[in-house]
Each structure stands twice: as structure tokens, then as C-alpha cells.
Amino acid sequence: MTEFTLTMTNGVNASDPENWRLKSYERREGYAALKKIISDRISPEEIIEEVKKSALRGRGGAGFPTGLKWSFMPKQYEGEKYLVCNSDEGEPGTFKDRDIMRYNPHILIEGMLIAAYAMGVKTGYNYIHGEIWDTYLRMEEAIDEARAAGYLGDRILGSDFSFQLYNHHGYGAYICGEETALLESIEGKKGQPRFKPPFPANYGLYGKPTTINNTETFASVPWIIRNGGEKYLDLGKPNNGGTKLFSVSGHVNKPGNYEIPMGTPFSVLLEMAGGMRGGKKLKGCIPGGSSMPVLPGDVMMETDMDYDSIAKAGSMLGSGAVIIMDETTCMVKALDRLSYFYFEESCGQCTPCREGTGWLYRIVNRIENGKGCMEDLDLLDNIADNIQGRTICALGDAAAMPVRAMVEHFRDEFIYHIEHKKCMV
Amino acid sequence: MINIEIDGKQISVPKGGTVMDGAKELGIYIPHFCYHKKLSIAANCRMCLVQVEKAPKPLPACATPVMEGMKVFTRTEQAIAAQKGVMEFLLINHPLDCPICDQGGECQLQDLAVGYGAGESRYTEDKRVVTNKNLGPLISTDMTRCIHCTRCVRFGQEIAGIMELGQAGRGEHSEILSFVGKSVDSELSGNMIDLCPVGALVSKPFRYSARSWELSRRKSISPHCGLGSNLVVQVKNNRVMRVLPRDNDVINECWLSDKDRFSYEGLNSEDRLSQPMIKRDGGWQVCSWEDALAFAIDGLLAVKGKYGVQAIGALGSPHSTLEELYLLQKLVRAMGSSNVDHRLRQADFRLDSQLQGVPWLGTSVDDLSKLDAVLIVGSTLRKDHPLIAQRLRQAVKEGAQLNVVNPHSDDLLTNVANEAVVSPNAMVSTLAEILKALVQNKGVDAPKGTSAIIKMVTVTAVARNIATSLIDNKSVAIYLGNIAQHHPQYSEILSLVQSIARVISARFGMLGEAANSVGGYVANAVPMPVYNVTEEIKQSEWSGLNASQMLDPGESQCQGYMLLNVEPEYDVNNSRQALRTLETAAFVVSMNCFRGNAMDYSDVLLPIAPFTETSGTFINTEGRAQSFNGVVSPLGAARPAWKVLRVMGNLQKFDGFEYETSEHVREEVLSENGDFKGRLDNNLNVRDIKLPAFGEQVIQRIGEVPIYQADSIVRRAESLQQTSDSVEPRAWMSSVLLKKLGVSDGDVVKVSQGDGEIQLRAACDDKLPLDCVRVAGAHSKTAVLGAMFGEIMVAKL
């Protein structure tokens, strides 16, 4: 098997119960980046420049260039600014942030420290979703360790730099993973997305300038500072720098998280995950979490795992949750399950999503149960079209895209369901 | 200014404005539901999606800030497709019950469905059903119709100041509801009905009584509080069916208080007086107007003959029109007496001789929104002036500091910078403390007449903080509320407020209690000359008895009374005295819209028309004269009071009563004598202000007028009488006083003033001053008690 340079998981050992602790982290160059910044008095501008050079893009799903996002924070702003980590990993298929926090929590803390330093922020929140209570407790313990060691708190490592970090756990609403709904939730309000503009960089948590990044994005930062942005970029492809964690689930022999360089062929990732279970044929793959369009197996096998390649193939890299479906999968049933998720998780704030997700689900469910008609297929596409791009946040798109792609790529199966009132597979 | 183009038309929009602002300016209608000019932007209905050049997807016009050179298209294929798509989503779960929906005919969803909806639904699944909520006696719910625009929620948070409705649940399960088991109790709640773009929140009193297209819409003016809200009165078959706000940005904006909105129920009350009646040989009989008027005049003349002209007195409600009050005083004065007053709840008339002009708000209503600092003295503000409280709430949001001197600490539902909660007896000294702090801070001499009083007080921290707040801000005003105006030391309070205002160059004035509190002065319905008096009048001095003197059994020489819209058990400061005086008077003519208890003390009942059945004028608290026409014809034999008073003048052959219309009367009061606004003046000729001396420590009464007891119409509005604001008065006091009396919260206690005694439930309010009991007046339960302020006895049963 090919050897890769790992930026986040090098030396991480899930089976060692002490491996996550500060001492182990320090042994694998942990907090070296922070120490370097403080001892070498690296300026915030230099850090942002380095992150820009690395072509690191947001790992939460949208893929927005991280360095650019950091540069949006008002520099001369007097008063509180906030840094928020989005660990509300709720997208079906995604479980990478959970494992970063479980097995390597200090890399997140160090990443946030560097970001806070670069943007002049004194307070940060790590919003962890509600179902992973043990992980929340581990993060709490990790923060205590970092604070005790002088990495976190007032006058970090004897410098003028101070940063307070708090864990905040949600209650399991998918919508709270939307960054502005997450801010509302931290503020103690109902988790509903805000309309943008204004963007969080100007009007964020408590109305103050705020930067929100995904857990994995922060976890990527220490390596970049230690080794330089260009080296990070070189690990991947132009515009698609570095390595990324992929959560591989579904019909593979070894489901789990795998860190690979951007641009690695999908076939390599599939091989790392032990190949198809029972040697079956790959029917379809959702390459970036359940809200992204599904791709047929043959298209997927020709694709590399990076933002641009997957976009070219007709889907999106998203959060890097690779859902593998073999030939025994009923695509109607799969969509039925996905549509139910978005129907249940719509926040209900804006009309197209509140009303449309339920409609989509009911039609798909009807087809799955042998009560569909041919007109339903165009209706599904049209409803999805009426949702997509017309909502306050991206949940509407997330509900619409899987429907359109499933019906497009696996139309035969839907027709079979409608005509024969039963499943093809 | 930012230049943009909408549908090919150029428009400049202020920076920070939205596409919707530009479209409104251009007169281009963009369909919308959640957007409302007075509420924050929610952008949740998505109906206003428009195409914007270079934007990959349609954008909501309400939430999209304008950018230089932006090109917007509201009617292109992309925009229309988006709008139609949203409309379909709104309709799939909306019930098809328009034929039985009260909103039908005035429903935004119905209207826009005509333009953007399909003829037939593509939705074949079951529709959502949402359980209805009981929000109280005013708002009826059909929550299945709700489209989740959250206007009602935002109204509560932003305008009413209290979030009584919220959206719970997620996705399709989300619904608008109140907190568990709570009703919507805001005194502004009815506005949620107007704001609701569908039939989810409709008026409970109006429900199922008429279709909107059957109603004639007629303009009118509210006869209740001093604001003078502009109304649309909706009429069917000569009956007032509903009242809605008429937009006037400098008065009520697009809002109405619930009192203004739901009081109309009182107009159709069973208690309406519809026939003239006279008391003959100890019994009451219905009679003709001729007989009744002849009987009334004979009775009054008999009193005049027996007791002299000074025994004739007239009391007019400040909710009467300018024309009515003017003719009332003209009639009394023509008969030779100056015993006339409209200030029925005022207790202290010492300042009458110091008045320089007509007391008024001292600023415009609109100015309230632009103040940097305010001091409210003695007011149950939210209940007496719901929309003025709302304006101040918005001002506070913009950074204004609100300071209060009050004998209670009712929640104003906004941030109060400083609040001095002191007993009624201590209000004068507290104001003196504020004045002293200002004088010290500014290093100026004490204003005229105040040097003695400020020597006698020591400045407390709260008084100093209030002084600092007033001195640190540019645009400052001080307002006296109803409690101050009904206070036995009104004279000292006003004199000190004037002195404070003078030191800091602030404006000051009265929050007019009633629709015509200013108009009553302009009509000269006061015993002394104030407004536009001729030399001739000045020489005759016009000095009559004021309301308090007329009704005080010890002081009054009156034996013959004319009452205009007055119910003495509710409308005066000391109801016990008033009832006793009237019951023993020789002859009482009661001109009223309602029967009430008038038969107990009257000799003639003359049925007169309420504001909806007559033309007239109210001069609101800011001195704005607003005239209106009747919207329905008078009930039964009832007649407009101005006509009744005119005929009473004619029958006595007085000159100057030859009016053909109410406009003639109005012209005589307003136009002929020039601009009355020039005579609006709150300044007193300040004399030495003394610190009032109080005897032994006694328990003081705080007697406010409950919101829905303020005037005869609202008292008969059934739905308002079922609200939480209409619960029976209780004896509110601090836990310290409760303990001292040996009673608990909820126990029945004996409450007495003089020989008036009642039993009330005690209730605990630890924000009240320790030596006070708060017992509302203007209520049948407490009518046998005496003055609204002063000594009161409370004892364990």
C-alpha cells in the first residue's frame, strides 16, 4: 500500500487509551507550532499568509478557502471577537470530527489557538453535537490538560497572547451544524439559521465579528505552521492542498476514517477500506455526505478524491463522508431514508424547506411502498428545483440535491418500483 | 445614497437599505408575507424572491442590501418561477377553508394566490393539521392556516416588548404558540391580528359576525386615551362591527391599543340609553325629547330660583368632544354660573390660578421617539398610554435613557435606566432631590420658589442618578402621567418638574389622560379663564367651582347638576363623595350614552350619541385637533350631545346658540379666536414650593384607574372585561405590610377610607413602597372608597 504523509493522524493510535492525552500529543510534535509562533514572534499576518498558501479549504462541507475566511475578520475591531469550532457533525455518513476529538483532541485545541492568535481573538467556543456526550467529556478533559500546561488561558506560554476556550454541547439538531444556527444555539436561542448578509465575520456570535471553522480545518493548521503552507499544498493538488480525512461507510470491509492526500484516486481509498464487502459490485457512491449528489459506481471509480475532481464528476466533496452502496442496494429505499432525514431535520423557518422536504419525502415514500405514479418522477425533480437555491440556508439544497441525483442516475429503478410495485434488487 | 435599477427604473436608496425599500419607493409591488415595515427582517417566507443581475440564484428583496449599480428584475422568468414555487409550498398545507375563514376577502395569501398560485394543486398527500391555542378573549386561532411568517412573534419581541408567542418545534412540526397555559396579555395584542397575513390569528369578538366585503370603512378618531389614535370603523347595517387602525406615522403609526380596538363592543351594549326618561312622582317614565328637555330646564331653573345661580354646576367627561364641552360651558355660563369642569379625576386645583395657558404634552408625539433621556413622573404608563409606552420602548432601543419616579414598579417591558419607587407622599421630596442634584451639578442658583424646599431634602443615590441621566443628554423631556395629575400635590409636582426642566433646558408636559384633556381647556370647560378670554370675561372673572368643589359635600353649594358622559362612581377622584353629593342634590340632568346607575341619582336621563354617532373634534395631548364624522346614525332616540345642548340654549332663548352643524361650533371655538396652539403652555407662575407636611405615619392609597375602566365605553366592552387586566381590584401591598397586618397573600382584608368600607383580597407586591396599599379606583367594587390617593385603612378580618 502507498505511504502518505499524514498531517492529522500521524502517530494517533485509537487502541491506546492514553494516546489522546497531552503527553502523547507533545511527543508527536504537539504544540510545537504554537511554541514556534510564540518564540519566533510570528505575526498574525504571516500565519494567515501561510494558511492562504496552503490552499487549505473548509473541511465542513462548503470548501471555502480558510486563509481567505480568516482575512475577513476585522483587524482593528475594538471589543470582543469570537472563534467558533463547528463540531456539530450531523451529516449522515460523517464521523471524522468525532474521531479527531476522541483520539487527537489537542490538535483541535492547538489549531484553534493558532487561529485565535492569527485573528486576535480572545474567546472561542467548540460546539459539539448532542449525541456524542463521551466525546464532549473527553474534550473537556483535554481543555483542562491544555490549561494546566499553560497552552490555554491567560498569557499563554508567558506571552501577551490569551485565549479562553469553552466546549458547548448541542442537543442533536442537524440544523445547528449550519454556522449561523449554531451561533443562535450558543446564544441560547432556537437553532435557526440567520439570513446572510450580514456574514458572521461582521455580525456573528452576540453580534460580534466571528470566524467559524470545522474541526478538521482547525486540526489541519498545526502541520501547516510547522512545515509551511507550500509543503502542505504540495501534499495535494493545486487549489486542493493537503490531506483530508474521509469517513468511509456502507458496503466495504473496513469502514472507518482514512486520511489521504487530496487527489488520491477513489479506487485507492476503496482499497484502504478493504474493498467491497463480499466482493460485490459498486453500484453508487455518495462522495461527500448524504446531502451531496450520488454518483454511479463506474463514474466514481474513475474519480480522484479532491474538491475539483469530484465537482467535475457531478457531485461535491462536502464533508468527505463516502457512502458506499453495492449492487444489492435499493436506491429508492436509500432515498426514502435520506429524504426522511431532511424532512425531520428541516428547522421550519423558511417556506420551501419546511413545506418542500415533507412533500419530497412523502412522494419518495409512496414510490417505495408501491403507490407511486410516473408523474411523480418529474414532480420530484420540479419540487427539488423549487427548493434548491431559494432557502435561507443550505439545508434546502441538501434535501434537494440527493433527490435530483438519485432520480437522474437511477431512474430505471424508480420506474421499476412504480410499474411493478416492488424492488428491482 | 446607492443607485440601483429595478425593472429598468432608476432609484436611489439610502446606504443599508434593501431592494424592497427601493421597490416601494418606485411603487413596484413585490409579493411578500413576512416583511413588515415596522418589524425586523426575517426573510423566511421567501415570497419576495427576485432576480438580481450576476447573482446565481434569486434573492429575497426584503433582506438583500442595495449595492451600487445593482440591477433587479421582479417580473422575469426566474423571479416569477421562484415566487410561484414559494406560493405552491405555502398552499400545499394551507386549508381550503376560505369560505368560512374570517380573513377571507382581506387575506394576503388569498390575494397573492390569485396572482401566483396554480388553479389546481399538485399536492395529493394529507394536509397538516395544527391544534388551536387559547390565547385569551381577544385573539381567536386557527393554527392550521398559519404560514409561519413570525410577524406575531416579532411583534411581541420588538413592539409589545414581551415575547408572548414563539415558534416551537422543527420543520413541518413547527407551530406558533404561547408559553404553556399562558394567554396573550399584552395591551397591544390586537395588532397581531392585523399583522397576521392569513386567518390564523383573527379577532375573537368579531369572529363569524360579518364578511369583510360587507363592511363599510369609515374614518374616525379614538375617544379613549390622549393619543387620539386614528381609526377605521367598520360598519354593517348601521352597527359598528369592528375597529382597525388607520396609519398615521406621527400618532399611532400602524398600531392600535387593545382599548382603542375592542372598545367598540361597548357601543352596542345592552346598557345603551336609547330613550329620554324623566323621574316623576318617584317613578321613571320614558318620554318625548320635548318633555324631557322642558322637564330638565324647568328643574334647573327651579334650582336657580331657589338656591341662586351659583347652585348650578356642570361636569363633562374629558372623553366628550370639543363641541360638546364647549356648548356645556356656554350653556352654564349663559345661565349665569361658571361652575363647570372636565378634570374629573384631578384632586389638586391649587395651580388653576398659576396656569399660563393650556396644559399639554409639551412636545409632539413623534418627538417621543427622538428623545435621548426621559423622566416619567407618576404614571401607569403601559396601561394609560399603551402606544406612548411603545414609542418610548423604541426610543430606548435607539439608546434613550428612561427614568421613572413612581409609587409602583410596574414592568415597562423595556430597560429603565433609573427608577425611584417612592410612596405618593414622597414624590414631591424625590423631585426636590433631583432638582437639588441638578442645581449642585450645574452650579446654578435654585430656580424661583425652590430654594427653601431643596434645603430640606437630602439627595439620594437614585435621585442623583436620574439627575445625571437628564443632564448628560441633549434631547430631554419630562412627562407627568395620570398618577401625577390625580395626585393631591399635583401643584408641587408640576412646579418642581417645571423647575427641573428649566435648569436643564428640557421640555415638559402632561401625558393627556383622555381624548380631550387638552380640548376641555380649549373649550373653556374649566371654571376659570384660561383660553382666549376677552376683557369682558376677565372682568367677570369667571370664577366658578372646580370638579372637586362641586362634588365635595362639605364645600359644594351646587344643587342642580348637568352631567355630560359622567358616571360619578367611576369617573371622578373621590367616588364616595361624588355619589353622596349627587344623591342629595335637588336636581340632576344626566346626559349619557348609557343607563348605568344614573337612575339612582338623576332626575332626567337624556340619551346622547357616542363618538361613532356624532360628528366632533378631539384635541389630542400634543394639541392636534382631529375632527371626525359619525359613522352610524344614533341608536334609538339618542341624539348628538351638541344638538341637545344647543336646544337647551334655544329653549331658554339664549343668544348665540343658533348652530346648524357641529362645524359651526368648532369654528367658533377654534377658528374665530385664532390659533389655539399658541396658547398651549405648561408653565406655571411658580410660587414658593413647600414640602408638604404629613401627620402620623399612615398607610397611603395608590389608586390607579384600571386600563379597561377608564371611560364609559370601554367599561362595557365585554371581551376586554374578560382579559387579565380586568380582574377584580385587590389590595396590593408589600410582604412587610402583609406581615405587619398578620395576613397572607390571598386573604380577604377589610379596606376603608372614611366611612366607606369594602372587603378585598390582599395580594403581595414587594416592589411597592412599604407604607402603601394599591387599590384600583374606577371600579364598582371600590366605588364606595374615597379619594384615589391619601390615607387608607387596611385590617385583618
Query: Structural class per helix/strand content of chain A?
Result: alpha/beta
Q: Enumerate the strands of the largest sheet of chain A in spatial order, edge to edge or round the barrel.
A: 6-5-11-8-9
Q: Could you give the count of β-strands of chain B?
A: 33
Radius of gyration of chain B: 28 Å
Report the principal-axis shape of chain A: globular
User: pLDDT average of chain A, as an integer?
Assistant: 95
Query: What percent of residues of chain B are in strands?
Result: 15-25%
Computed Rg of chain A: 22 Å
Helix content of chain A: 40-55%
Question: What report would you give on this structure?
Answer:
The mean pLDDT of chain A is 95. Chain A starts with 21 loop residues before the first helix and ends in a 5-residue tail after the last helix. A five-stranded mixed β-sheet of chain A has the order 6-5-11-8-9, sandwiched between helices. A four-stranded parallel β-sheet of chain A has the order 3-2-1-4, with helices on both faces. Chain A is built from 18 helices and eleven strands. In chain A, strand 2, helix 7 and strand 3 (164-169) form a beta-alpha-beta unit. Chain A is an alpha/beta fold and 425 residues long. Chain B has 797 residues and is of the alpha/beta class. Helix content of chain B is 27%, strand content 18%. Chain B contains 24 helices and 33 strands. Chain B has a seven-stranded mixed β-sheet, covered by helices on one side. Chain B has a five-stranded mixed β-sheet with strand order 2-1-5-3-4, sandwiched between helices. In chain B, helix 9 (322-335) runs parallel beside helix 22 and helix 9 crosses helix 23 (662-669). The longest helix of chain B is centred in the middle third of the chain and has 19 residues, at 289-307.
